[in-house]
Amino acid sequence: MYTQAMDTMARESGAKLEKVLSPDEQRLQERFDARIDAGDFIEAKDWMPENYRKTLLRQISQHAHSEIVGMLPEGNWIGRAPTLKRKAILLAKVQDEGGHGLYLYAAAETLGQSRDEMLGALHSGKAKYSSIFNYPTLTWADIGVIGWLVDGAAIMNQVPICRCSYAPYARAMIRICREESFHQRQGYDSLLVMMQNGTPAQKAMVQDAVDRWWWPCLMMFGPPDDQSPNSAQGMRWGIKRVSNDTLRQKFVDATVQQAQVLGVTLPDPDLKWNEARGQHDFGTIDWDEFWRVVGGDGPVNRERLGARVKAWDDGAWVREAALAHARRQQTKKEAA
Ligand SMILES: [Fe+2]
Ligand SMILES: [Fe+2]
């Protein structure tokens, strides 16, 4: 599990700790380590190592960015939903994602960065969000597949974070996971209706969406464990509880049967049950594509970030009005 890079990092931070920490800080560090080992939760007011704070801040803010950027591809389809029922469901789902962003920004703020700073980093392209949202939503079936597979993969990733050692993050995740399970089910249900009662063209549309989303969804779990140098430190700190490859395998195993019930084929000729392992084998993921999309060169990276910045700019008057209202209330209160 420990790669060369991780060993180097551990040695460097070890050396730095010896040099920089005062005896008091050493004691705090030891107490912190013991609490993590005992499975304790860390609260915002507690002492924590600087790298733990920075790692969490990066992870939680990226997670928050993913929630609000994820609203964009689905928001595009609210006005084009095929029935009133599907429109109401999609509207509720997209609103949930906005709420997830808010819980997570609030959790990240407890680590000492303002929401404006985090959004500034997102809008300037400095901060990342999940690469899955750099793929386009071409048809209505994409919306069902996002619910089934993207939210399904998100649940697999996020359930272990409900036990994250940083309590404000863990608390936010408990509520988020409940809502994600509705997202997954509404997506699957909308696909099931098309596959059971739809026309041949609608069934083909579902299969086409599955073909395009399957591999990017497997990439959502991150690079393979042996190429994921920060994972070990995340595990040590109780931020990460389950490895990328383990979560990916669980997702594949859970999804195969759902695909059978749905009547779609997962686009992987190497996907088959391995009796000896008691798990499915699956084909090789195109990690070049993964790094290309993470690096900013995915199908719709520029368009997505552009839409996000435009939404922020277009909302300026709302923020100004809310501030003006708050100032007037304050003046009234002081005058009373
Ligand atoms: Fe969400
Ligand atoms: Fe969701």
Cα Rg: 22 Å
Ions, cofactors and other bound molecules: fe (ii) ion
- Which segments are poorly predicted (pLDDT under 50) over 5 or more consecutive residues? 1-18
Mean pLDDT: 92
Could you state the order of secondary-structure elements as H and E?
HHHHHHHHHHEEHHH
Computed structural class? mainly alpha
The helix fraction, in percent, is 55-70%
Distance between the termini: 64 Å
The backbone outline, from C-alpha atoms, is: globular
Tell me the strand percentage band: under 5%
The spatial strand order of the largest sheet comes to 1-2
Count of extended strands: 2
Q: Count of DSSP helices?
A: 13
The major pleated sheet works out as: 2 strands, antiparallel
Describe this structure in words.
This protein is mainly α. 68% of the residues lie in helices and 2% in strands. The chain has helices at residues 4-20, 23-37, 50-75, 84-109, 115-123, 140-158, 167-197, 200-219, 231-236, 244-262, 287-294, 301-314, 316-335, and strands at 272-274, 279-281. Helix 3 runs antiparallel to helix 4. The longest helix has 31 residues, at 167-197. The protein is globular, with a radius of gyration of 22 Å. Residues 1-18 have low confidence and may be disordered. It binds fe (ii) ion (2 copies). One fe (ii) ion (FE2) binds at residues 97, 151, 154, 180, 183.
